[in-house]
Amino acid sequence: MKTSASEFNEAQLRRDVALSRRLGADVHLLASITPVDEAVRNTARELCDAAGLELEVLDQADLRPAAHKPVPATAADGLGRPYRDG
User: Fold this and answer.
1) What are the backbone dihedrals phi and psi of residue 81, each rounded to the nearest 5 degrees, phi first?
2) Closest Cα partner for 28 from 11, 42, 45?
3) In terms of DSSP H, where are the helices of 1-86?
4) Alpha-carbon span 43 to 29, nearest angstrom
5) What gap in Å lies between CA 85 and CA 25, rounded to an integer?
6) Are 25 and 52 a contacting pair, CB within 8 Å?
7) C-alpha to C-alpha distance for 85 and 43, rounded to whole angstroms
8) pLDDT (tens digit, 9 = 90+) per residue, 14-72?
9) Which among 24, 2, 14 has a CA at the least distance from the CA of 44?
């Protein structure tokens, strides 16, 4: 997980994928709270394919969804309204 997708250079991706493989993972998770561009995705996919790992990418669209999405039921009162202090 990175706070910025720009931190995923090729050297970092190689280290991360190698670590996932050493740990015996089936899936390598690449995650950033900013958008992950296609070049990074493609490099990660190639490295994961070579290592026999599935690649899962989560980025801004998945981890920091738009504010207009519905409030989860666990964060709302019985009528679907968000809880408010006071």
Assistant:
1) -90, 145
2) 45
3) 10-22, 38-51, 60-63
4) 14
5) 43
6) no
7) 46
8) 999 999 999 999 999 999 989 999 999 999 999 999 999 999 999 988 888 775 555 55
9) 14
SS3 category, 35:
coil
Within a 13 Å sphere around the CA of 36, how many CA atoms are in the beta-carbon half?
Answer: 26
Q: How far is CA 21 from the centre of its chain?
A: 18
pTM of the model: 0.72
C-alpha closest to that of 33 among 57, 68, 67: 57
Helix (H, G, I), strand (E, B) or coil at 21: helix
CB 5 within 8 A of CB 32: yes
64 and 33 Cβ atoms separated by less than 8 Å: yes
Tokens of 19: 């670590």
